[in-house]
Amino acid sequence: MSILSTATSAAPLHTIDLIRKKRDGGALDAREIGFLAAGAADGTIPLEQLSAWLMAAYLRGLTLDETRALTVAMRDSGEKFDPSRLGKAAVDKHSTGGVGDKTSFLVAPLAAACGLAVPMISGRALGHTGGTLDKLEAIPGYRTALTLSEFETVLRKCGASIVSQTPALVPADRVLYALRDRTGTVESPGLICASILSKKLAAGLDALVLDVKTGSGAFLRKREEAEYLAALMVATAEGAGTRTVALLTDMGQPLGSTAGNWIELAECIDLLRGERPAESEDLRELSLILAGWMVCLGGKAESPEAGRGLAENALANGSGLRVFLEMVEAQGGDVTVFDDPKTTHKPGATQMLAAWESGFVEEMDTTAIGWAVQRLGAGREKAGEPVDPHAGILFHARRGARIERGQPLATLYATGPELLAEPVAILKQAVRIAATPPEPVALVSRIFTRENAEKHLQDAVKVVG
Ligand code: URA
Question: Structure pTM?
Answer without folding.
Answer: 0.94
